[in-house]
Every structure is written in C-alpha cells, then in structure tokens.
UniProtKB/TrEMBL annotation:
<dbReference type="InterPro" id="IPR035246">
    <property type="entry name" value="Spermidine_synt_N"/>
</dbReference>
<dbReference type="InterPro" id="IPR030373">
    <property type="entry name" value="PABS_CS"/>
</dbReference>
<dbReference type="InterPro" id="IPR030374">
    <property type="entry name" value="PABS"/>
</dbReference>
<feature type="binding site">
    <location>
        <position position="65"/>
    </location>
    <ligand>
        <name>spermidine</name>
    </ligand>
</feature>
<dbReference type="InterPro" id="IPR037163">
    <property type="entry name" value="Spermidine_synt_N_sf"/>
</dbReference>
<comment type="function">
    <text>Catalyzes the irreversible transfer of a propylamine group from the amino donor S-adenosylmethioninamine (decarboxy-AdoMet) to putrescine (1,4-diaminobutane) to yield spermidine.</text>
</comment>
<comment type="subunit">
    <text>Homodimer or homotetramer.</text>
</comment>
<dbReference type="Pfam" id="PF17284">
    <property type="entry name" value="Spermine_synt_N"/>
</dbReference>
<dbReference type="InterPro" id="IPR001045">
    <property type="entry name" value="Spermi_synthase"/>
</dbReference>
<feature type="binding site">
    <location>
        <position position="34"/>
    </location>
    <ligand>
        <name>S-methyl-5'-thioadenosine</name>
    </ligand>
</feature>
<keyword id="KW-0745">Spermidine biosynthesis</keyword>
<dbReference type="GO" id="GO:0008295">
    <property type="term" value="P:spermidine biosynthetic process"/>
</dbReference>
<dbReference type="GO" id="GO:0005829">
    <property type="term" value="C:cytosol"/>
</dbReference>
<dbReference type="GO" id="GO:0004766">
    <property type="term" value="F:spermidine synthase activity"/>
</dbReference>
<feature type="binding site">
    <location>
        <position position="109"/>
    </location>
    <ligand>
        <name>S-methyl-5'-thioadenosine</name>
    </ligand>
</feature>
<dbReference type="Pfam" id="PF01564">
    <property type="entry name" value="Spermine_synth"/>
</dbReference>
<protein>
    <recommendedName>
        <fullName>Polyamine aminopropyltransferase</fullName>
        <ecNumber>2.5.1.16</ecNumber>
    </recommendedName>
</protein>
Amino acid sequence: MMDMELWYTEKQTKNHGITTKINKTIYHDQSEFQTLDVIETEEFGNMLVLDGMVMTTDRDEFVYHEMITHVAMNTHPNPQHVLVVGGGDGGAIREVLRYPTVTQAVLAEIDGKVIEASKEYFPQIASGLTDVRVDLQVADGIKHIQENKGKYDVILVDSTEPVGPAVGLFQKPFYEGIYEALKEDGIMVAQTESPWFNQDLIRQVFRDISNTFPVTRLYTASIPTYPSGLWSFTIGSKKYDPLTVADSDLHSFDTKYYRPEMHKALFQLPVFVQELLTGEEK
C-alpha cells in the first residue's frame, strides 16, 4: 500500500500558487462573512486560512505582526490610543501592547469567529486579547472609524486581501475616514499586498493615501507564506515622518524581525517597487 501525503495549495493568482505538506485540518467553519480553516502543516505549524487564502501561521506570523505595528508605533512619540481594524488573530494587538504608553488598544474585527478560532488554535498570537487595556469589538471597522472622530494616535489596518468584506478597506473614502479618526498628529498603516502581484493596487493606495496625508511612505518585508513572499505596507502620517525620527527615540523590544537599526532602511526600496510610486519605469 502506498503512503498517502496530504498537501494544501493556495492559488495566489490564476497562474501561481504555493503548496505545503499538511497533516490534517483541525478546524473548519463557515461564518456570516467567510470560510475559516485551521490546518496543521509540516513546515509552518498551524495555518489560518480564510476563503482559501493564508492569513497567518505559527512559524512566520511574527514578521507581519511586527512590521504592521512597530514602524508606526516607533514613529509616534506618545501612542496612547490605538485602533486595529481587522486583525482578529490578535497579533497586531500583541505587538501594540509592548508600548508602555498605550492606555487603550481597540480591536474592531467584523468576524467574531476569527477571534475565537485564534484564541483556540493560535494562543501565542492571541495572547494580548485578554489584556485589560484591550477593547475587543466584533464590529465593522469602517463604521467604527466613521463613529470615532479625532480619537486615535495610531490606526493599523490589518485587513485580508481586497475581496469580500475587505474591499472597502482599500478605497479612498476609508483613508479619509481614518484621517478624521486620528488625532492631529496621528499615524496610520495599512497592509498593501504584494509588489509582484498587486502593482495596480499599490499604485492606487499610495496615491489615495498621499492625497489624504502630508507624509506617505511605503516599506516592505519578507513573509514566506504570503503571495510572492514580498509584502508591502503603506504609512500615512499627519505630522511625523518615519525617516526623521531620532534614533534615540526608537524603542527596542524582544522582537524577531523588526529592530530599531533597520527602521529607516526599510524605506530604501528595490528599484521596481520605487517605480510603482513614482510612475517611472526603465
């Protein structure tokens, strides 16, 4: 009898995908918004999959969660009130809570089943969700932003890909709403997909945020389970520029990817990524 191997494949575009060996599916559910699966993989540990797309894994989660969080948090001199839109796994909240200045961290996640599954199967990621500073809301992030003007120092948009309930999180009215929800010196960061596979989206989002915020920057990180492995984040700031923050003001934590020494270097982009922002092409 032949040994049977199980493999999970995500078709990341119509022409490209990734595949990884798995042991079993340990959780499956259908929420009001999406299909949720937790898969036990050989290479990456537990893997959270929403509508067939990899959201996070035990092994590489720290890259995304540190990078969506620390650039903005380390740029703002006194982040006290922070909002995470999406991010029901709790990883961004966990990183936000490292900052002693934080008095309140609000999580606005539209799908409560993501939160519950993450608590059960990704306890190291969701570890901060029980902190007394966390206000956990199963709510539409767009609506939450519309209802909270001038409240936040930092807003992190930890969204899924721009399909289904996340489509509105990649549109100019949403960024304008974020601007209004931030204090006069507030900062936002949004995950903005792959420079290889989502070039039009990156151009559009960078243009929309640039037209909304005085300071707009893009930076990248290497995340092996995300499409192409190269991922982008776009920061919009009312006042503070991540390139001019004093090195002495950058906080150091027990992180695995981000460190203060790389803070400014993150914005030195590969030529083909820079060309997405300038409209130039060689």
